[in-house]
């Protein structure tokens, strides 16, 4: 059986990966106490030596986008330096490295969905650190998968969806940015597709198509459109809201300034993933519906059955 090491087991994606990867081999799920990516490369490699995995799946990251503007050194240590150390270890030991990146590596201009070979141009410290991590992997580890995604959410952990549900029950007025466009990506979907890719790698390692792929649901929306749809569906499901979803106000990013610049265009073209592996991606609303159902009916979902993505 393959030994599969997961970093960041308590995060949104790490939580779901433990479910999706469990049937594929012996799982070694680590948290910051067991594998701290802010430590030196030597310490990271020593930790990997102790576990000696065949596959490393790395969802752990410095994701405090605004804090990174004043703490770029730590962001780089976790998102770039540590990733380089993991990639070098994976190459020496012949292990597969699966790593997750972000739409923030692009400059956010235009309206066309970003392709994997488009020129990058991150506009934030977080984006620069994630791009540096990608480059470190490509330099050191030929056997890798880099999966770029966007707007990750899930039933576990903190995210926009859960924040909007809370605010919708507390406030009778909300303002949400309407000029940033992308697709909300469920952590469960990312984890399930990761499992499919690893399953294919284990079956045919010699002919596997390593490289960088975009992974996001079909369709697009703004943060405002996302919030309106979510709270409309929550109201239809019986959740008592203080706000009428139709009254959520859309505002430009300029009215909600933050330390880090957000991409206006977070659209990701996923044709390469679908054409290479035959994976059909669902429309973004289906993921919102599934997570909302899980949150509003915890008893019915306590067993966490496998997801079915149309």
UniProtKB/TrEMBL annotation:
The keyword Glycoprotein does not apply. Pathway: Carbohydrate biosynthesis; dTDP-L-rhamnose biosynthesis. One of its GO terms (molecular function) is dTDP-4-dehydrorhamnose reductase activity. Binds 1 Mg(2+) ion per monomer. Gene3D superfamilies: NAD(P)-binding Rossmann-like Domain (3.40.50.720), UDP-galactose 4-epimerase, domain 1 (3.90.25.10). The keyword NADP applies. SUPFAM superfamilies: NAD(P)-binding Rossmann-fold domains. Its cofactor is Mg(2+). It catalyses: dTDP-beta-L-rhamnose + NADP(+) = dTDP-4-dehydro-beta-L-rhamnose + NADPH + H(+). Its EC number is 1.1.1.133. Residues 3-295 form the RmlD-like substrate binding domain. It is an enzyme of class 1 (oxidoreductase). Keywords: NADP, Oxidoreductase. CDD domains: dTDP_HR_like_SDR_e (cd05254). Catalyzes the reduction of dTDP-6-deoxy-L-lyxo-4-hexulose to yield dTDP-L-rhamnose. Belongs to the dTDP-4-dehydrorhamnose reductase family. This is dTDP-4-dehydrorhamnose reductase. It comes from Chromobacterium indicum.
